[in-house]
């Protein structure tokens, strides 16, 4: 058994995370640079240190989950969401069930609430936001961001929903109240059903084809008929019909 395979088995035992479902070359490169920086010579020594050292385990989790995010990421897609997709969904249902899957530090679910507030009062907005990584969920709940994260936020929205605190911007409580954060592993945990909208962006790129196939199939089951999956701007689905999806717009898929 190679030392990377032993490492994968150990991490799965300890955390439930299956690294075999992430693209190997990319993951190995990121983790090798971390263990070398920490002075280890191979994956097996790194694993025994991780089993004993909680801080090192957190650093490992931070390295394996790439957490970069921003508000209104790929702004043009958010205009389509606001002007086409939400009006379409609201035709059949005024209480939308929405999931931001792999939400990282919260920019994505908070953007969803801000965009949807053009159509509904905040009191009627409820968004489930999940991620594998508890550290990012803590940051998401805090809701404090550097200015560069807000680059794509329309100015009136920035003025309405953020308070400036020195060089940071804090999301107002009225927006925070619309989002419920929970830990969830897309590769292992059960999926809720009957969603009108699932947003899952910039995480599928890290997974193997086998893992992606499973996740798309799960998303399809989780959406109601006519519900929408919104994916990242490098993440077109190669064969949407396989999952009962039709293209609604670029990077938006409608469940049949
Ligand atoms: C690059 S961020 C994407 C954030 C946001 N969706 C966006 O597009 O800006 C990727 C996120 O995926 C999360 N992630 C990685 N593997 C996951 C898994 N198996 N289940 C749930 N989340 C996962 C990471 O913790 C990280 O926060």
Structure description:
This protein is of the alpha/beta class and 256 residues long. Helices cover 43% and strands 19% of the residues. The chain is built from ten helices and ten strands. It has helices at 3-15, 24-37, 43-52, 54-64, 75-92, 107-116, 134-142, 155-161, 173-176, 209-222; strands spanning 98-101, 127-131, 144-146, 162-165, 168-171, 179-183, 195-200, 223-231, 245-249, 252-255. Strands 6-2-1-7-8-10-9 form a seven-stranded mixed β-sheet. The protein has a three-stranded antiparallel β-sheet with strand order 3-5-4. Helix 1 packs parallel to helix 3 and helix 3 packs across helix 4 (54-64). The longest helix has 18 residues, at 75-92. The protein starts with a helix and ends with a strand. It binds S-adenosylmethionine. S-adenosylmethionine is lined by residues 65-69, 73, 102-104, 108, 131-133, 136, 185-187, 201-203, 232. S-adenosylmethionine binds at residues 65-69, 73, 102-104, 108, 131-133, 136, 185-187, 201-203, 232.
